[in-house]
Design a protein that fits this description.
alpha+beta, four-stranded antiparallel β-sheet, 2 helices
């Protein structure tokens, strides 16, 4: 499993999803805490989700401005996640252990 993030441009697009038009797969009932108070899917994500998405977008744009991107993949042999910093041509600049990445995203320095 790997995840490559392609360049993303800022967008003002928003869409409201009509819950009646969405087909759902049968799944076990969600715990009570996961149910929306109204029982309906909201028309837009909660503000904290939008804030997190905007923060991720800013971090992504900052990396791109530095000519870098992140590549996430699952190591087939160990089953562990690998994180690589690459230049925009895909050349490996460094590998980051998952535990170190958590430090970085919470405000630590990427040496």
């Amino acid at each position: 499993m790997s995840l490559n993030v392609a360049p993303v441009a800022p967008s003002s697009y928003s869409a409201a999803i009509d819950p009646a038009s969405v087909q759902r797969r049968a799944r076990p009932a969600a715990p009570e805490r996961d149910v929306w108070p109204s029982g309906k899917i909201p028309a837009s994500p909660p503000p904290e989700v939008i804030d997190a998405m905007q923060a991720a977008s800013r971090a992504y744009q900052a990396l791109r401005a530095q000519g870098r991107e992140l590549h996430f993949a699952k190591n087939a042999d160990t089953g562990r996640m690998t994180i690589e910093v690459r230049d925009l041509d895909g050349n490996l600049l460094r590998s980051i252990p998952p535990s170190r990445l958590l430090d970085v995203v919470t405000g630590g320095e990427l040496d």
